[in-house]
Every structure is written in C-alpha cells, then in structure tokens.
Amino acid sequence: MLTPLYRACWHIKSQELLQRHEATLGAFKPIPYFSELDLDTMPRFLIITCADPRCIPENIFNLHTGEAVVLRVAGGNAQFVLEHILSIDSLVHFTECLIVQHTDCGATHFRDATVKGGLKERAPALQQDIEGMKFGEITGSLQDNVKASIDFLRASPLVPKELKSNIRGFIFDLKTGGLEEVTA
C-alpha cells in the first residue's frame, strides 16, 4: 500500500515542479562552469543506474552537487549509455564507476517484443527500424544483469583502463534501502 505522500508523487505536474524550483532560488548557490574548474576538481566518479523514480542515486548516496556524474537509463544497463560515458569522460576522465540496479525494476516487467509490438502498431511504416531496437529487458537475475553491465564496460576497448579496474556493481533494495554488492 502506498502512503498518501508517495501516491501523490505519481501524479505530479510540471507546474508544481516549476513552483518548487522557484521556491529554491533564494538558497541557490552558483555552480562553477567547466572553464572555472581545474582538473583536480572535476567529478571523477560515475554512477550508472535505472531511470526509475524510486531509485534515486542522489538520495541513496547522499550526493552533493559536483561529486559524481549520474547516468540514468531503463534497467541501469551500461550497454545503453556507452556513448555518453565516453563523451563525458573526454572532459572529466573518470576513475571510478558504480553500477546500481534495483529490486522490482520495471525492466524485469516489460519485454522488448511487447514494446516493439506496440510501436509497430503506432508507426507501421517504421517496422524495420523498430525491429532493430533494444529496450533493456531483464530476463535473468538482477545479479546477472549487473555482471553483464560490468563485463560490457570492462570488455570495451573504448573504456579507459583506469576506469575498467574500478567498476563495482550493486543492487539497491527498495524495501530495506540496503545495497548488495555484485562481483564480476
């Protein structure tokens, strides 16, 4: 059963978010531009996690502005964010990476074939394009999925060696808040 507060979050509207933003402006502190940072103050830490609004790495790790780069994608699959990792790495030179997936992930509930079927109905002229798409379904265990993401990054010749040796994977438990480390 959802608490009334959490139930209300599922129906948030953009205007409410804009009002919340406006309310924070009095306490806002300027954030430095890249040109104002030196290499030693760049965020070197990368977190790859799920886009699910129940799995918020800023809350899980009590992150502050500038401490980490967070990439969020359905299922928390690193395979879908490689280009983003590489482009950001060209600026900040990542030294560590956490891959965080979570219990009851939506990617364990949908199937790529079902998503493709719905898209083909919506846009029949794009069937060939749709057939080549991958949506990140998770069909095995979360542990195996985390390992697959770690293995993918470590196997890529494009990922820097320093980062490859500092990749760790975890499963965040939505009910307890705990983190289970997954070794690969």
Quick recap:
The chain has helices spanning 4-9, 14-24, 57-60, 82-92, 112-122, 127-131, 142-155, 161-164, and strands at 45-49, 69-72, 96-102, 167-172, 179-182. With 184 residues, the protein is an alpha/beta fold.
Can you walk me through this structure?
The protein is of the alpha/beta class and 184 residues long. The protein has a domain at 45-50 and 66-107 and 138-183: Carbonic anhydrase (Beta-carbonic Anhydrase, Chain A). The chain contains eight helices and five strands. It has helices at residues 4-9, 14-24, 57-60, 82-92, 112-122, 127-131, 142-155, 161-164, and strands at residues 45-49, 69-72, 96-102, 167-172, 179-182. Strands 2-1-3-4-5 form a five-stranded mixed beta sheet. α3 (57-60) links the parallel β1 (45-49) and β2 (69-72). The protein is globular, with a radius of gyration of 19 Å. The mean pLDDT is 91.
- Strand count, sense and closure of the main sheet? 5 strands, mixed
Residues in helices, as a percent range:
25-40%
Number of strands: 5
Structural class: alpha/beta
- The number of helical elements comes to 8
CATH topology of the domain at 45-50 and 66-107 and 138-183: Beta-carbonic Anhydrase, Chain A
Looking at the chains present, what oligomeric state does this protein adopt? Answer: single chain
Instruction: Based on the coordinates given, report the CATH architecture of the domain at 45-50 and 66-107 and 138-183.
Output: 3-Layer(aba) Sandwich
